[in-house]
Every structure is written in structure tokens, then in C-alpha cells.
Amino acid sequence: MIKERIIQLIENKKLPKEEFYIKIGMTSASFRGKAKETPLNSTAIENILSLIPDVNPNWLITGQGEMLKKDQAVIVKESKANYGNLKPIPLVSVTAVGGFGNNSFAIEERDVKDYYIIPKFKHKKVDFMIEVEGSSMYPKYNSGDVVACTVINENSFIQWNKTHVIATKEQGIIIKRIKKGSIEDKLCMISDNKDYDAFEVPKEDITGIALVVGVIRLE
């Protein structure tokens, strides 16, 4: 049962149970007796994945695999330096890329968490990388995955039904598949996780779009 696995996870991480239950929007009563056999809502699951990024979502939901992700990414993580033909790719905070749709957008050194050298991205135009938060794109992307992004300067270059990073005025940064909206002035945002409904965003609310061209997964 998923709630049994949550208890195992809490004990493995040596976290205070009552405090953890509150953070995921639940109480200890939900983890006792018959209540422990009831399913967990998607919001609680998303909160858990956000609070413990190294938990394996597949294990949490199905019980299959290892409890925690294992670092299997073949990358070199270094500070900015000279790497010959390989360009260091900046991993930046979500707030730092909020204005990437502006012509004057530039990544400031203070916003860079790290630089990554990834040989497989050598022939891709990667402008920046950010971490995935939440479970709306599961199983395609897990919370904690790092996605590589190429900024799109014109809406005509959108690749329909492909995953994009979208900067919006109202919702901030979101990662979704994009489809055409019900009217010309809107775009439809699609999650891979079926627990999340599709929704439309007015084009005037979008300040930037970047195509996801690669992912680094730690599992």
C-alpha cells in the first residue's frame, strides 16, 4: 500500500512524521487503521515528490524498483571553464528564466547553479537547463529531472504535442505539451499525468517558450 511506503520513506529519511504529514496536506489519522488502506490523492503525491526529490516515483506509486533514485547520469559537473568544443550549459533557477522570451534576456552569473558538460548535447542548441518540479509530466519526466531547453523566438516554431517550458504571467514557469487552443488566441497545455486536466493559456499571457530537447534523469 502506498501509505505503508510513505511511512517507510519517512523512517528512511528520519523525518518527523507529524510535521511531514502536515506538509503534504494530511494528518497522522490517515496513516492509521483502515484509513491507511485508502488511496492517496495526486496533490499529496506531488507534495511528496517536491519535498523529497530523490524518491523514486515508480516505487512510491507502484512499489516497484528502489525507494530512492540512483545517480546514473553520465555528465561532468564543473564550474565554468574552457572545454574545447564542448559548451558548458548553465543550470539555472526557475525564477531566473522567467523572462527568457524577451529579446534582452540574458542569464546572469548569480542565477547559475552549476555548469554541465554533456557530450550527447554537443550538436543540440541548448540555451539553459532547469529542474522539473512536481508530477504533472510523470512518467515522461520525474520531479528532480533536469531538462535541456532551446528558446523559441516565434510561435510559428512551436512543435505541436512536444514538451515545452512555458513562461507565463499568471502561473510562472510550467512544463507541458502544447497543442493548438480552441481559438487562435490560446494554446492548450497538456500533462502526461492523467490526473491533471488540460487547460488553455491566452497567448498574451505567455512571455516565453522553450522546446525541451533533452533530459538528465537521476534514478
UniProtKB/TrEMBL annotation:
Boundaries of each Peptidase S24/S26A/S26B/S26C domain copy?
101-213
Q: What GO molecular function annotations does the UniProt record carry, in alphabetical order?
A: DNA binding
**One Pfam family for this entry, by name?**
Peptidase_S24
Q: Do you know which CDD domains this protein is assigned to?
A: S24_LexA-like
What Gene3D superfamilies does the record point to?
Umud Fragment, subunit A
InterPro entries named in the record: LexA-like, LexA/Signal_pep-like_sf, Peptidase_S24_S26A/B/C
- Superkingdom field: Bacteria
Q: Which key words tag this protein in UniProt? A: DNA-binding, Transcription, Transcription regulation
The record's section on PANTHER family has: FELS-1 PROPHAGE TRANSCRIPTIONAL REGULATOR, PTHR40661
Name of the molecule in the record:
Phage repressor protein C, contains Cro/C1-type HTH and peptisase s24 domains
Lineage start: Bacteria, Pseudomonadati, Bacteroidota, Flavobacteriia, Flavobacteriales
